[in-house]
Amino acid sequence: MSKALLREVPASFDRALVSEHGRRPRISLAREQHLRYAQALDEAGYDVEMIPADDSYPDCVFIEDTAVIIGSTAVVTRPGAVERRGEVDATMEHLQTMFPLARIEEPGTLDGGDVMFIGATVFVGRSQRTNEAGIAQLRDIASSFDIPVKTVPVQEVLHLKSAVLPVGDSTVVVTPGAVDESLLSGLQILHEAQHERHMFSALRLSNGHVLVTSTAADTASAVARLGVNVVPIDVSEFQVADGGLTCMSILIED
Ligand code: CIR
């Protein structure tokens, strides 16, 4: 059975890192939305495991950034934000019962939100959070599984998967201007609607469904017109803190 590793919303979530000083996330609504996200994964056939929150890490619900499964190895990251580095310990404790572990070491930094698997390739965002040294270390690990790693510099947004979201075997939704699209050669590109800029996010599930953000309904309809079975879900409180649909889980496919 496929597994989904999630981490609860901490009581400190209203102090999560935000790139723009707008409103802060509302914790009780965030918890409701997180529960519905967990239910959607459960309904899609995932065995959902919830790691307790640690209030000393306001961003710990964004568990995706703390580890990447590549080949048969779990790579424990070294998050680019110093205040998030300690989040990896709880993830590591869970993953070490399932996988051999590798670690991104200093001076490398890597956030899981920059790592995008599509087809037989891994695209890695070079971003505010992921540096060349981190990418080089991931490339070394991936090469032992013959998995090619392609670097994509990211502008304007936090992570690669803030702006490039897989919705099919070779189709991605892209926020115009955030990446050089010629680096995504071989992929079919659909642009995020201009009036929904930075609002679209998606998470492909093993049952073929794709969770999509309800805050980007027109982009989601365009994805549905490609024949994709989309399931809208509201994660507004996580979007306020620069999160999307991928960032709240680590999916371990069977
Ligand atoms: C941060 O700035 O690190 C968090 N507030 C948001 C992280 C989102 N992570 C992700 O999309 N993978």
Kindly describe this structure.
The protein is of the alpha/beta class. Helices cover 21% and strands 25% of the residues. It has helices spanning 27-43, 88-95, 132-143, 160-163, 217-224, 236-239; strands at residues 3-7, 47-51, 67-70, 73-76, 101-103, 115-118, 121-126, 149-153, 164-166, 171-174, 188-191, 202-204, 209-213, 229-233, 250-252. The model has no long low-confidence stretch (mean pLDDT 97). Citrulline binds next to loops.
Mean pLDDT: 97
Q: How many angstroms separate the termini?
A: 6 Å
Ligand types = citrulline
Computed CA radius of gyration, to the nearest angstrom: 17 Å
Low-pLDDT windows of residues: none
Protein structure class: alpha/beta
Number of helices: 6
Number of strands: 15
Q: What share of residues are in beta strands? A: 15-25%
Order of helices and strands: EHEEEHEEEHEHEEEEEHEHE
Quick synopsis:
By secondary structure, the protein is α/β, with parallel strands linked by helices. Helix content is 21%, strand content 25%.
Question: What are the SSEs and their pairings?
Answer:
Layout lengths: L2 E5 L19 H17 L3 E5 L15 E4 L2 E4 L11 H8 L5 E3 L11 E4 L2 E6 L5 H12 L5 E5 L6 H4 E3 L4 E4 L13 E4 L10 E3 L4 E5 L3 H8 L4 E5 L2 H4 L10 E3 L2
Bound molecules: citrulline.
